[in-house]
Amino acid sequence: MRICLFSSKTYDRDSFLAANGSSDWHLQFHEARLTRDSVALATGNDVVCAFINDDLSAAVLEQLAAGGTRLIALRSAGYNHVDLAAAQRLGLPVVRVPAYSPHAVAEHAVALVLALNRRIHRAFNRTREGDFSLHGLTGFDLHGKTVGVVGGGKIGQVFARIMHGFGCQVLIYDPFPLTGLGELGARQASLEEVIASSDILSLHCPLTDDSYHLIDAARLAQMKRGAMLINTGRGALVDAPVLIKALKSGQLGYLGLDVYEEESELFFEDHSDLPLQDDTLARLLSFPNVIVTAHQAFLTHEALDAIARTTLDNIAAWLAGQPSNEVKAGA
Ligand code: NAI
User: Fold this and answer.
1) Positive or negative, the Cα torsion across 71, 75, 76, 80?
2) C-beta of 81 in contact with ligand 1 (< 6 A)
3) Which of 75, 180, 184, 260 has the most CB atoms at less than 10 Å from its CB?
């Protein structure tokens, strides 16, 4: 079995080699993203193992199928970047890792909340420069505040439980009825109520046609003035350019992004010696009340181990003729 991993970094190599153990499966690691230009690297591999910013459009899938690929194994939960209809037409099953560590992502969202509120990023820089002043660092007690969660699935529920632990009142919007929210100290509410009532709004839903630009200019205007927005879901849940006006006017008080609609050309790579070409991102990074992390919410040892183990299990199940964690068009 030959498996070709795109967008694979040293941490992926470590976790996959450990999970592969003494198996005779051959793992080929490429740092390159899967694109029309790099697709030839997969030729002769049975399985292509891809991550979130790899190109799995119809054109690339056609080239993969022609090169002998028989299975697409995603290392992610999200599959919005895969042309599932094309994969089905080409007879290429697509499997994913539906859950690896909801704690990893939820805890990173909490890290963004705490850092933004207590200005940890600013304090870190100040004290290293010998500036021990406190002006501009005033935060607020989380206790008693209202936290809105959009998407009450695995990650949203872990986030809700943690925020309840801080003494927050938690409201969750999800298009489907949720059960067991009492245990999380949360209540299900309409999207309108969640947006209008929240001091902190955190996005944990998948990117779909319905959720594309869920947070746009109109919804930003409906938020409490000075509220905090956290997005660890997918970049395109938010219309990024309209955030700038909301931040400049003070309508949006704090912004924490782990994902960005145009991240695929930037995130996971070191561009520090090049001029940043994305003017929206450059402007967002200039605000003192904005923190951007480069899609690192998943990056814990536990999550990496689980991703590697589930991916190899998915491949074994497919080989045995009993695919698990398969995603299909229209499902
Ligand atoms: P999940 O499938 O357990 O939960 C998603 C929830 O969102 C479900 O309850 C679903 O009913 C709800 N939902 C669907 N459409 C919605 C809409 N339009 N508005 C509000 N809610 C909606 O998924 P999980 O594991 O909680 O992951 C959530 C998302 O987090 C993923 O789809 C992925 O995009 C993102 N993610 C980000 C990571 C990162 O490193 N930043 C890592 C892993 C996931």
Assistant:
1) negative
2) no
3) 75
The CB-side HSE value for 161 (13 A sphere, CA atoms) comes to 13
- Ligand 1 centroid vs 180 CA: distance in angstroms? 18
- Does one domain contain both 93 and 127? no
Instruction: State the DSSP code for 298.
Output: T
- Check whether residue 85 and residue 152 sit in a common domain: no
Range(s) of the domain holding residue 217: 102-292
Nearest atom in ligand 1 to the alpha carbon of residue 176 is: 11
Ligand 1 in reach of 253 Cβ (< 6 A): no
What pTM was estimated for this model as a whole? 0.94
pLDDT digits (tens, 9 = 90+) for 33-83: 999 999 999 999 999 999 999 999 999 999 999 999 999 999 999 899 999
Displacement of CA 4 from its chain's centroid (Å): 23
| Amino acid identity, position 86 | A
Pocket test of ligand 1: the residue of 204, 216, 292 to mutate, having most ligand atoms within 8 Å of its CB, is 204
Q: Which residues contact 119 (CB under 8 A, 6 or more apart)?
A: 136, 137, 139
Q: Are residues 135 and 259 in the same domain?
A: yes
- At 269-314, the pLDDT tens digits run 999 999 999 999 999 999 999 999 999 999 999 999 999 999 999 9
Indicate the average pLDDT of the chain: 97
Residues 182 and 50 in one domain: no
**Residue 206 Cβ contacting ligand 1 at under 6 Å:** yes
User: Looking at the structure, do residues 133 and 248 belong to the same domain, yes or no?
Assistant: yes
| Catalytic positions | 234, 263, 295
Structure tokens at 203: 């996005």
The total number of structural domains in the chain stands at 2
Task: State the distance from the centre of ligand 1 to the C-alpha of 25, rounded, in angstroms.
Answer: 32
C-alpha 208 to ligand 1 mean position (Å): 10
Q: Residue 63 carries which side chain, given as an amino acid letter? A: Q
Token duo for residue 255:
């912004």
Q: Confirm or reject: Cβ of 256 under 6 Å from ligand 1.
A: no
